[in-house]
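Illustration: DNA mismatch repair protein MutS.
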Amino acid sequence: MNASEGAVTPMMAQYLEIKGRYPDALLFYRMGDFYEMFFDDAEAAAAALDIALTKRGQHLGRDIPMCGVPVHAAEGYLLTLIRKGFRVAIAEQMEDPAEAKKRGSKSVVARDVVRLVTPGTLTEDSLLDARRHNFLAAWAEVRDDAALAWVDISTGEFRVIACPTARLAPELARLAPSELVVSEAKDIDLGGLVSEFGVALAPLSRGSFDSAGAESRLCGVFGVAALDAFGLFDRAELSAMGAIVEYLNLTQRGKLPLLRPPVKEAPGGTVQIDAATRRNLEITQAMSGGRDGSLIAAIDRTVTAGGARLLERRLSAPSRELPEIRSRIDAVGFLVGEVRLADSLRGDLKQVPDMDRALSRLALDRGGPRDIAAIRSGLAVAGRIADRLPGDAPDRLREATTGLRGHEDLVAYLDAALVADPPLLARDGGFIAAGHNAELDEARQLRDEGRGVIARMQSEYAEQSGIQSLKIKHNNVLGYFIETTATHADKMLSAPLNETFIHRQTTANQVRFSTVALSEMETKILNSGNLALEIEKRLYDGLKTMIMDASALITQAAHALSEIDLTAAFADLARNDDWSEPQVDDSRAFAVEGGRHPVVERALRRTGEQFIANDCLLTEADTPAIWLLTGPNMAGKSTFLRQNALIALLAQAGSFVPARRARIGLVSQIFSRVGAADDLARGRSTFMVEMVETAAILNQADDHALVILDEIGRGTATYDGLSIAWAVLEHLHDVNRARALFATHYHEMTALAAKLDSVENATVAVKEWEGEVIFLHEVRKGAADRSYGVQVARLAGLPAKVVERAKVVLEALEKGEREGGTRKHALIDDLPLFNAVPAAAPAPPKGPSKLEQRLSTLHPDEMTPMQALAALYDLKSELKE
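Result:
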């Protein structure tokens, strides 16, 4: 293409017109087998995708930058662009190029955008993580009310919750949506939320959030006159849901996904967990950013994609409804006891495809024969699982069973209609089973066996005419024709054969004829390939319609399979990892015996090490609500804190827990402040981050909360930090009255146990042996006598000279602290830290100790038990000397 300066070619005019409607998106402009990009789009895409940037003609006197990607490989490039924050508008050819040429040689093929690809509107398997949801959310404010709605268009799940501004961050942390739709007129700054949660903002016009229009829009989507059957929604909730539907209309170009009726969540129905706590506890994502090292990675035993997504939802939002929790735990307990049943269920579940996402792709016309086959396979397995579950199963499992039955007719029809392993795309054909449709079978026979059909006709005509030398041949002029020698011409031209055979051509030695049947067969053979494909496409549409008509029941079955999968997965985890059934009640008790950290225990198991279990007893009978935990670094304080929070979370998610015994009084909120880092993007130091998180806890925690705090005040001067930590603990005790584990290095705080009724000291035990510190990882009642910081530094690998010098400084500081007064002021003179002569390296040991010498003479394999016991007593007496 070449354009003179100031001129615009028709194709480029079309491109610019379409691009003008989508200024904020990269435009994939279909040209044959490629999606092309031009101008700024080309430069941005070439850099993001690391592909060649070329040029194509000129526009306004300048070269037009261009790059492109093959249509067949477009999904991979789309994924890269979406992950890098781009939105992509896909403009397809809307007519056959041959049709465009009929309008003139310079006519441009009609093109239009068929879809706007954004982070929250993905449906393709290659663009999604099968085991995680991909939520699109919308937040709306109407007067004094606000609400958050969210949808996963790949599964159809649609929910809404009342969400004032203060609750927006915790809810986004829970859902981790890919995209958040907000009003262009929004006057509050949401940029901080975007940077914190990595969610892409999608502004919409104020009219898209109009609650009256939203109600009408929602009624149209669900085909109802009013939304009352789904619940009572306030104006803000309608506004948020309506905005999502409007956004889907815009991005999907009017072809809405299959949305389930909206579900209104109660704000107090799940445990409140803020963003900082989720990061600290590493529930679904490790601090390193990946899934490895997180709680969900350590405990996920699900075998279906739907079950994995359900597990993520349960861990992200543990229930606060006691009947719901007990129902889940009872179902797990049943399968823990029914080992053979549980194993057979898991064997069946491994064959279950992702029906939710297959159904969604079919609804959006992005599916194919394999999605229909996925529905068939999933429903077939559902029937087998329903037959396996006994009548005495807990209510939760029996209720799930009802959703698995009643699909026999649909499965039988799909089984008869589809081949065992259909192709991915309908346009490839070959997915309808032989014998399902007579017209298709005939077309395929003609396509695949045309020569055989012609040979049979030749035999029939030879028998009818009595001319055994008769042949059916083909050329490009006559097509198929019947040929005989000239000696038989009179017979063929005479009655009664002339009524069947129509003369076409006479040559020197042959006479050629045709018949009506042969002409019809020729047409059928020539068109049989296209005809077979058209018939298959028609049958595919029929199968898709049949499935969409049953979509509600299919969704119910998919949900039931996910529920059974998660229950069986929790049971498998409990059996194989020795987890116990928790007792969850509406008290404030928190009694854990032999508790373990599931992630740390799993890591230790790989190395053959054993995890040291510990008890935690809060607010049961006369016990305190707060443990003040002291002990050195590396002794396991942070692990102990986190494991108890995770045990509470797992219990209310409906799982067994890593402990010998656990009684959990319902936890309303879990707060964790363990470790901190600078937040440079918002200009916050480590200490500022720590104080912001601590303030959030003290302002929100109620008397049913579980709070774990580690090293409050460590980011500032010693006395400032001690005073802050002291005041924080008093506030938790007197005002919040929450259950809490409070770890600190400020040993002065252990005095609070005598002052505050509900505070008790606990410590992580260590043992010293010949100058070495041995971490026992055991939590005991009482207070640590010191921090062992110098010993830990030695273990960390500090040079020996530094460690020895630190010991000298520590002794001097502790002596000054004891003497007080003028001794403190003289300390700097006695201890010139920056002018100190390096201490001499410690003298190497002169040789083995007397005890070591004695041990070297003993040979246990050659001793009798009595001799070994006598030797042990001798060694003990020598040790006392």
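Reading the tokens back as a structure: The chain is about 45% helix and 20% strand.
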